[in-house]
Design brief:
Elements lengths: L1 H19 L2 H11 L3 H5 L30 H12 L12 H8 L1 H5 L3 H6 L15 H13 L28 H10 L5 H17 L25 H12 L3 E6 L9 E6 L2 H17 L10 H15 L4 H14 L10
Helix pairs in contact: 1-2, 9-10, 9-12, 10-11, 10-13, 11-13, 12-13
Length: 339
């Protein structure tokens, strides 16, 4: 090897000298062809059989290349015994080769000695000639049925049929939450409105309990004020329903004759009442000064307005009272017939 490398180096130097004719180029080429210093200084040694003999096997045991790993099913069965979990039934699994040899006498005579010994009848009387995993599966099924559980394939009970009209994905939120979210939405950005709705409910949940004003009471039957932060949806519903107007004023033209319009009180449904109350709350919240920057500023102002309604400090109460007073004064117009 060393002689071959030197001959190759000498031939390359001669070729370079013929082309360039410079001794410097020859010296540089010879230095590049030499191996690095770390390889030249490293001791060279070869491993022989005398220095490191091969391992010897024990007397009567398998050699180093004869010890085979267990089968996958056997390994799984041994691990199941250690962990206590149910593993494959190695003892009760049938072998297709045995089944074929039992049916074919000619092949059974030519079979290896190991297979012949395994086919000798060693099982007790009363067992069947073949073995599968059907028996343990049937036993497990019987135990499962005897436990009193319903084997319907479902973890929880199925709902009673027929289904209710509100058992749908679109009804997964409370009606008041969905209505307020739709009124908060601008330019069709539902995700932004849902995020603001979540911030409002979170602010109501984390805020301190409100102090109810006895001059402006909430709806009858409402829970104590200290319990409201525990249920922010009830908190929001109680605030909206307390300031929701019962009536609205409609200008009816030609009722008094001569094109004169009369103010007529018109009752409102529950959804209409809540919509009017939410619009008043949003209008009052938009007029409040901002306390800082961020995308949660408007949601915080709406939540503070809801708390102010429960405490009786909001101007929405005055708007509701004004509508009711005007409706009471205009109720006499309901007896006037159209001319």
């Amino acid at each position: 090897m060393e002689l071959t490398r030197r001959l190759q180096t000498t031939s390359s130097c001669l070729k370079l000298f013929r082309t360039t004719g410079s001794a410097t180029s020859i010296l540089r080429a010879s230095q590049q062809a030499r191996p690095p210093l770390c390889l030249r200084l490293a001791p060279r040694r070869s491993i022989t059989a005398d220095e490191k003999p091969l391992p010897k096997a024990d007397e009567g045991g398998p050699g180093p290349n004869q010890e085979q790993l267990p089968h996958v099913s056997e390994e799984a069965a041994s691990m199941s015994k250690i962990t206590g979990e149910g593993g494959p039934q190695i003892e009760e699994q049938g072998t297709p080769v045995d089944e074929v040899l039992k049916r074919d006498k000619t092949s059974q005579e030519k079979a290896p000695k190991v297979i012949k010994e395994s086919m000798e009848p060693s099982s007790p009387s009363g067992t069947r000639s073949f073995s599968t995993s059907t028996r343990p599966r049937q036993e497990a099924l019987i135990d499962f049925q005897d436990s009193g559980l319903q084997t319907t394939g479902h973890k929880f009970e199925l709902p009673a049929l027929p289904l209710a009209t509100n058992m749908h994905l679109k009804y997964r939120y409370a009606p008041i939450v969905k209505q307020v979210t739709n009124l908060l939405m601008r330019d069709g950005k539902l995700s932004v409105a849902q995020r603001n709705m979540a911030m409002i409910l979170n602010h109501l949940r984390t805020a301190s309990p409100p102090t109810v004003n006895p001059d402006r009471p909430l709806l009858p039957g409402s829970p104590p004020a200290s319990h409201l932060p525990l249920n922010p949806i009830l908190y929001l519903t109680l605030a909206i329903d307390s300031v929701a107007p019962l009536l609205r004023i409609r200008a009816q033209k030609g009722m008094a004759g001569g094109g004169v319009a009369l103010q007529m009180p018109v009752p409102l449904a529950l959804r209409q009442r809540r919509r009017q109350a939410v619009m008043w709350i949003l209008d009052s919240a938009s007029k409040k000064p901002s306390r800082g920057s961020g995308r949660g500023g408007f949601a915080q102002k709406v939540a503070e307005e809801v708390i102010a309604i429960v405490e009786g400090r909001s101007g929405v109460w005055d708007r509701r009272g004004g509508i009711h007073k005007l409706a009471i004064s205009a109720r006499a117009n309901l007896n006037i017939r159209r001319r």
